[in-house]
Each structure stands twice: as C-alpha cells, then as structure tokens.
Amino acid sequence: MMSGPQLLSPQQQVPRSLWSLLCMTTLLLSSIQLTIASSSTSDDNNGGNKKDLSAGKLRQLAENALMERKFTDAESYYRQAISVEPTNSANHYKLYNLHKRMRRHGDALGDITTACELLEKSEDNDGNSSGKNKNKTMEYKRIKAKLQVNLGRCEDAVSEYKSLNEVNEDATNCAHVTNAALSAYQQSDWSSAIQHFGNVLTNYATLGDTPDLLYMKSQAEYNVGDYYGTISDTGKILKSCPQHLEAYQLRGEAYFRLNEMDMAQKHFREGLKLDPEHGGCKEGHRLLKKVTKNDKRGDAAFEKGEYKEAIGLWWGAMNVDIEHLAFVRPTLLKVVRAHLALKEYAKAEEECMKHVNNQDSVEGLHLLGEVQSSAEKYQESLRSYQRALEIAPDDQKQHCKRKVEEAQVALKQSKEKNYYKILSVPRNAQLKEIKKSYRELALQWHPDKNTDNKEKAEQMFQDISEAYEVLSDKELREKYDRGEPVFENQGGGQQGQRHHMNPNQFFHQNFHQGGGQRQHHFRYG
Which of 47, 187, 257, 513 is the most interior residue, by most CB within 10 Å? Predict the structure, then answer.
C-alpha cells in the first residue's frame, strides 16, 4: 500500500528551501548557458571583444535588444556590463527588470538583492552617504520586499520593511496567513491548510514561483482526497521546477488514486529518470506494476473463458490496496461478471452488493439486476433496475427506463411460460449459447430416450422446441422480450399455448443439414 506523501521537515518549510534554491540554480545555469552562446554571437556582430566595450555601451546595446524583444541578447549585454562594473548597482537593477519581464522572478529577486547590498556597501565605504543614494537604497529595498511578498516569502518581506522602519499591511497579513497555513499543515489539519495556502497563493504570492507552498498545498489536497487539485498544483510546480522529484512522486500517486494508471506510470518513470534510486517513485512504480499486471492477466483469462483464474487474478490486484476504491469498485464488477458466467449466482450477488453498498452506481445496480434475474429473483431484479433509474443522470434516463420495462416483462413472464428458464440461459444470452443449450436439452428430453417417462418427456421436448423457436428468431425474440404475443391468436398469455411447429420435425430440421451436405445421425441408448 502506498504510504502517501510525507510531511515536509521544518528545514524544508523555510522560504529559501532546498527546492527553491534548486529551481533558482537550474534557471541560473540555463541563463549562463544562454549568455555564453549569446555573448559569442554578440561579439561577432559587434566586430570585437567585449573588453573593448564600456559598461555604458553594453547597457545601451541591451536597451536596443530589449526594444526588439531579444531578451537573451539583452541579458548577455547586462551580464557583460556587470563583469566590467561589478560594483555598479545600476547594472543589477536593470538585470532585475529584465528578469522580471521574462517572468524569471527567482532570478529577479537575486538581482535586486545584490543591488541593495552594493548600495549599502557603498554607503558604508563613503561614510556619510548622499541623500540621493540613501533614497535609492530605500527604493530598492521596497521593491525587494514587494517581490518577496509576491513570491510568498512574507516573513522576509516583513523583516525588510522593518529595516526601513516601516510596516506594510500586505506583508504583515501575508506572513500571518502563511504561518496559519504552516501550523495547520504541521497539525495535519488538511482542510484548514488548503484554505490558508490558497489564501496566500491567491492574494499575495501571485507570481507562481512558489514550489514550497504549492507542494504543501498539494500534499494537503492529496490527504483529503482532492486528487485533481493535487494534479493541478504539482503541475504548476513541475512547470517552474522540472527537477522536483517529490512533485513527480505525488502527482504519480494522485493519478494512481484516480485509476489513471498510464499517467501514474509516466510520472513515476520521469522521477526515476532524474534519480533511479528515489524511494518514493520506485515504490509507487512497483505497486502500480503489481496491480496492472494482475489486472491485465485477469482480463486475458476472462476472454479465454477461464473465469475462476480471472477471479483470482483480479482479487490479487485488488488486495494490493483494498482501499483504492477507484480501482477496486470497477474491478469488483468484473469479478461479478465472472461469477455470473460460472452461474454462481449467489456469489455474484454477494460481490455485487459490496459494490452497491459502498456507493450506488447505475452500472452496479444494472449488473445486480441482471444477476438477480438470472437467479430467478425477478421482484428483486425489478427493484434494482428501479433504483438505478432513480439515481441515473439525465443522459442515462431513457436507457434505465428501458431496463425497468424489461424487468417488468421478465417478472410477468416468470409467472407464465419462461422460455429463457426452459433453455437455462440468461436473458442476454447470445444465439450460439441458445443453440448449444437447445441441442443438449433436446437430446436429453427426446421421447425416444425417455420411454419410461414418455408423457413428461414429450411435454418438456415440446417446451424446449417452442422456446428455441422463439429465442432463435430475432423478430420473435424481440416481441417476447417486450411481453407481446409471439404466435398468432395467442391471446393474453403464453401459458398453455402451443407453438405452431411439430417439435419432432423442428428437431430433425435443426439436427440435420440438407442440400447435399453431410448429415449428422444421432443414436439413443
């Protein structure tokens, strides 16, 4: 059984968590690679080495690239400007604006943080700094604090405002709600945690680069059974942080719970590509394979008519995690169909009741009605079909209504001559099954084989032939299933009515092939 997502440790809950840093590092490495490639192109285009250009010229080239929306080129020029003037805060501020425009908010926070540090260092070196520099420092710090709020790092934002001797209502409220979310999460109060995390992410941390908060919200959603919510939020994490192994595991488990096995397998495998020894993804993938292997083998056995084998395999799949209802409920109905095929009606009804008692479904109630009808419990069968009609959605009402009408006919016919019962076949039997049963029963009750009880044999033989005549004819069978008279001048019911064909003649027509083909002769006794 899957153990489910694990709680984050306190170290993982701090704003600069391992995953946040990993996401930022991944983006930074990508940025550096792009910068190197762009730098080579830019040097070629400008006909010289970047050392030949001043920081001002490089900033101008970056501005021109921005106007043409060539963000990668602009980033390259700004980084070159920083290499020329590493202590100029303006270079980092311009890079901050670029990264914000590119929606690389984690990088943008690093840029504005560096700009603030350089300004503060400049003030310390200069002693009494000018009012202009001091105002710029305060401006940068406010920008930094606002970005921290938008990234869900609200405690950091409160501290930043505090260093300015200011109180910001958004930062304070965000910190309060975030702390409430973390407290509910630690106490496994999942519903409250979802509400508070949702408040933070909707009203404050609006930029989306919040893998820690989103992951904890996803875990809370998983624990209350909101697997679609888990899939949605882990998808956001993987978009901004594609190496988040725990997000792959949690998303795979959510798909598993929804019985979407192919998607579950895909996510476990993606996690294992990043880390072949990741325990959560390995365990999830192992359990998934165990379930799907038994399930598919059960399907194959059923198709071969090996019903007992199929039942055992399906139970093996269900017992991997019997609480996995999205898988267990539909699989239980497959077990019912196998028992029905074996004509084990009592066991079929028992297993079907497990499905229905857990939660009513149209499919489950229809199958229960079919089992009860096969067991000649026609009144109970009618009640099951009527219950299905009561709960059916609008697009299934007509189908369910027809099932009720068929059950009413079956109940009426059970008190008269029941052709299905005579031939010992279910009401949904195929022609091949009807023909096979007729041949077996006709041979068994042929009067020539029952000389010691000829009167009963003649009656049975006649009923068997009559039943086969009706059920083997598509038009007559449809009329019979609707409760209509199947023979001319039949009157109000079938009881006591005799079919219009001589049963012995009918028997020989169905047991002998004419037209020059080989004849089959049967001997009795």
Answer: 257
